[in-house]
Amino acid sequence: MQQIYITGAGGLDKLELRQAPDPTPGPDTLRVRVHASGVNFADIMARQGLYPDAPKTPCVVGYEVSGVVDAVGDGVDTSWVGKPVFGLTRFGGYADTVIMPIKQVFEKPESLSHAQAAAIPVNYLTAWQLLVVVGALTADESVLIHNVGGGVGLAAIDIARHVGATIYGTASSGKHAFLKDRGLHHAIDYTRGDWMPELMRLTQDRGVELITDPLGGSHWKKSYKALRATGRLGMFGISTATESGLFGPLKLLKIVFGLPLYTPLGLMDQNRGVFGVNMGHLWHEVDKIRTWMETLLLGVEQGWVRPHVDKTFALADVGQAHAYIEARKNIGKVVLTV
Fold first, then answer.
1. In angstroms, rounded to a whole number, what is the distance separating the alpha carbons of residues 24 and 278?
2. Is residue 290 part of a domain?
């Protein structure tokens, strides 16, 4: 089998293709010959030494794959062999072969390619948790989606459209036409200055009921201020940490110093709420994840879940995939193909 290893914290030169023996599935697992692997910003942070949940280097990251089952372990029905599937991996997804627990595997819809299926697990489950499970978004409310052109952002548009909410989003101007075609109601160009005045103009100074924010640090303070009464702020990343000129964990210093302080009394006085989402800390709640995924798969069938793959790269070209995302070029998902 082939795997992409992160050999240490640093730049693209820390990504290395290595050979290894094919793994053998154990009890309640199956082996998947991978056709597509999703690339996520957490993978880039892991490569830069900024992701505390990542295994110690050298390691293989990757949270989601799509492929075909070619072997099963004890306790797994042999009828799975030969089936196209997709699902979640607890790292190890940057490979042409993976072992997956049966509880984290789902049959791939025939209407989706392997690349599209690999674009669902992390992005759509994260967006579902942000908007529906914890965010409790309703049709008479509005949502601001930061980085709306990213993978989670496009998934959030699909879900917010399904809910019936009014959708605002921040993205560079070159992405606005595409995003409006996807269902975004109001696009705000964050590259041309502060996004807050434009949001307030569009909402008649009321703000919005829900904001999803993967930026981190002082950005969370600003997002909190943009909440309407009864508003909720959903935090799910610290992507701005990668933009610092500092090295390794020192990159997090600016984020730490800029973190907001929320107090129970302050939240009560302002009728606002804050919450965090981290799919990587939900492995003990697989039953919940399966329930959410069943709804999303129904969404695929009904047509409101529309995974969009912006670009694919060969597994060996993973460095190009990372560079593409770091340059903010992608609209939607970037996928590695085998």
1. 30
2. no
